[in-house]
Write a structure and sequence with these properties.
single chain; 342 residues; alpha/beta; Alpha/beta fold hydrolase; AB_hydrolase_1; ABHD4; hydrolase; hydrolase activity
Length: 342
């Protein structure tokens, strides 16, 4: 498909890559989402915690006040559409960008299933294994679980950052064998080229240090799952790359960081996707390279749509509106409703 002509416009401080990344991540407030949690047992004895936001439940709550006034019972029909949301690196289902996505889909009558990566739901997992950038097997377990809910006629996969990479990789691995009910996939601020993303972020600087600090805290909070000898080495790691190279990659059967980036990246799988896929990356994203936008693939694919605005930061795309939704939220809805033109 041709590259999508972006309609994203912003001004002043929102053109700054760092402000447009940091503000939405730390100060954005999204209200109205109340999750119902479900635990999904996995094949290896571990679990994932799933958070559901049902559009029907929200509508029923909103209508309850009206019912008190009119005394008329209203039957809320269950949704036939589901969005499966995958969060980013060391995030969870309460991150502002994910809550914004949930609110957007609920607003058009879609249910939302947001899943927490291992150890990030607020409860420690049972195994040392983590959810990695290539964790499409875990997303597959979530999708298969959703397929057991007979009321859904269409499912859309939505991922942010790391979760976007997982979503695209899953869709590409499945190719023409993807479940019939999975209709589209959406990737926001996606590091499809993991090595390119690492190079763009650099070994030092704010984002590298922030991710390193968050990862170290995460690992120390689950020390009882980790071999003590390896654990004592974590404080010696100077760069984020050192964690991937010396611990995360070997833990998951890969030789080193280079092999991790190669095996986990979605880029080789994107050309194999056989459902409509939308990638929204910003040119000024401080942690993504241009290669992550998959522009060359989109130009020659019947399935890949890539939008690459000048601004937006990482999982940002700020927009001011009464509903509290950002540009990325609205763009997702336009894509699932076939309102994006090329």
């Amino acid at each position: 498909m041709p590259i999508i002509q972006t309609s994203y416009r912003t001004s002043h401080i929102w053109k700054d890559a760092h402000f447009s990344t940091i503000y939405p991540s730390t100060l954005r407030k999204v209200t109205g989402i109340q999750y119902e949690r479900e635990r999904l047992e996995l094949w290896d004895g571990d679990f994932l915690d799933l958070d559901w936001s049902k559009a029907g439940a929200i509508n029923k709550k909103a209508k309850s006040k009206k019912k008190e006034e009119t005394k008329v019972d209203e039957v809320v029909q269950p949704s036939k559409s589901l969005a499966i949301l995958s969060h980013g690196f060391l995030g969870n289902t309460t991150r502002p960008y994910l809550l914004g996505g949930a609110k957007a889909f609920n607003s058009i009558g879609w249910d939302v299933l947001a899943w927490n990566h291992r150890g990030l739901s607020g409860e420690k997992n049972r195994l040392e294994r983590m959810t990695i950038h290539g964790g499409s097997d875990e997303l597959e377990a979530v999708v298969n679980h959703a397929l057991t809910k007979d009321n859904y006629e269409e499912i859309v996969l939505v991922g942010y950052s790391k979760g976007a990479n997982i979503s695209l990789k899953y869709a590409g691995e499945k190719g023409e064998e993807i479940p019939d009910k999975v209709k589209k996939v959406i990737a926001i601020s996606c590091p499809t080229d993991l090595q390119g993303s690492v190079n763009a972020m650099g070994k030092t600087g704010f984002y590298a240090e922030r991710f390193k600090s968050k990862l170290l805290k995460f690992l120390k909070n689950r020390w009882e799952l980790i071999d003590n000898q390896i654990f004592r080495e974590f404080d010696k790691y100077k760069y984020l790359d050192d964690f991937t190279n010396n611990y995360i990659a070997p833990l998951h059967g890969m030789k080193d960081a280079e092999e991790y980036y190669e095996q986990c990246a979605a880029a080789p799988y994107v050309p194999k996707i056989r459902i409509p896929a939308f990638i929204l990356n910003a040119k000024n994203d401080p942690v993504l390279s241009e290669s992550c936008a998959m522009l060359d693939v989109a130009k020659n694919s019947d399935y890949i749509f890539s939008e690459y605005p000048n601004y937006g930061g990482h999982c940002g795309f700020y927009a001011s509106n009464p509903e509290g939704l950002y540009y990325g939220d609205k763009r997702m809805l336009e894509f699932v409703q076939d309102k994006i033109t090329v």
